[in-house]
Design a protein that fits this description.
Length: 170
Amino acid sequence: MEALLKSLFMFVIVTLMIQKNAMAAQHVVGGSQGWDESTDFNSWASGQTFKVGDTLVFRYNPGLHSVVELEGESAYKSCDISSTVNSLSGGNDVVKLNKPGTRYFACGTAGHCDQGMKLKITTVTGSAPSNQAASSTPSSSSAVSLGFSSAFFTFIAAILTVLMSLVFLL
């Protein structure tokens, strides 16, 4: 009986951990075009729901672009990239949305922000699924994670629990 209780407890813990990770969305900024001057970031962002726990992925040519997080709306509107909160230049940068509120991003390359290479997003709290369909193309990791739903991960957790029960009983 004690082994069964331990297994049930493990199942609940594993399921909760998997469910939390499965609900977070990965938003590839700009979708299939990525972080590029030709992308309309206002249109792209308007089709998204950004939630606490989600991530933004900025994909770009690191020799040509970079990502700077700006301090506020006035810096965003005027493309003042001298007042940054964070600066990234790796070409495949991930930004975790860890609290609700509005955040502002721009390309750090001179003139690119003025050409529209900037992004304003508002992160919300909540448990409704993020809009992943518009965040990227079917070949991206967002769409792949959409295919592996939380039900799949719950099924895997159930199998692990049964296996652990058998180990405890033997």
